[in-house]
């Protein structure tokens, strides 16, 4: 069972930046073979995809609401995926979750809270 641990969340003012990290361990296959994603869930809302990066790292996708503000990257040598969040808005407030997937397998982290408020 892959273990994913998110970090880097916190309280930030509108317009500020945060970088989330997701460290992976206990994977049956190489970390580089897993696609990695960030999701978020705001209170009273469904969990939504924020960004995804392919196993090779050559392709990324973003939710329309974060395009141009967020970037996703991975360091396969460190078994870590990052979400750089810039120009944060109050509507970005949510619990952010990391997910790995490979074929039909997926695993989730416990989440990290991001609060954007003045």
Summarize the structure.
With 118 residues, the protein is mainly beta. The chain has no helices and 11 strands. Strands 2, 4, 5, 6, 9, 10 and 11 form a 7-stranded mixed sheet that branches.
Main attributes of the structure:
118 residues, seven-stranded mixed sheet, mainly beta, single chain, four-stranded antiparallel sheet
Structure description:
The model has no long low-confidence stretch (mean pLDDT 95). The strands form 2 sheets. Strands 2, 4, 5, 6, 9, 10 and 11 form a 7-stranded mixed beta sheet that branches. Strands 1-3-8-7 form a 4-stranded antiparallel beta sheet, with no helix packed on it. The protein is mainly β and 118 residues long. It is globular. The chain contains no helices and 11 strands.
Q: Quickly count the helices.
A: 0
Helix residue percentage: under 10%
SS elements, strand count? 11
Strand content: over 45%
Please describe the topology of this protein:
Elements: E1 3-7, E2 10-12, E3 18-25, E4 35-41, E5 48-53, E6 60-62, E7 70-75, E8 80-85, E9 94-102, E10 105-108, E11 112-116
Parallel strand pairs: 2-11
Antiparallel strand pairs: 1-3, 3-8, 4-5, 4-9, 5-6, 7-8, 9-10, 9-11
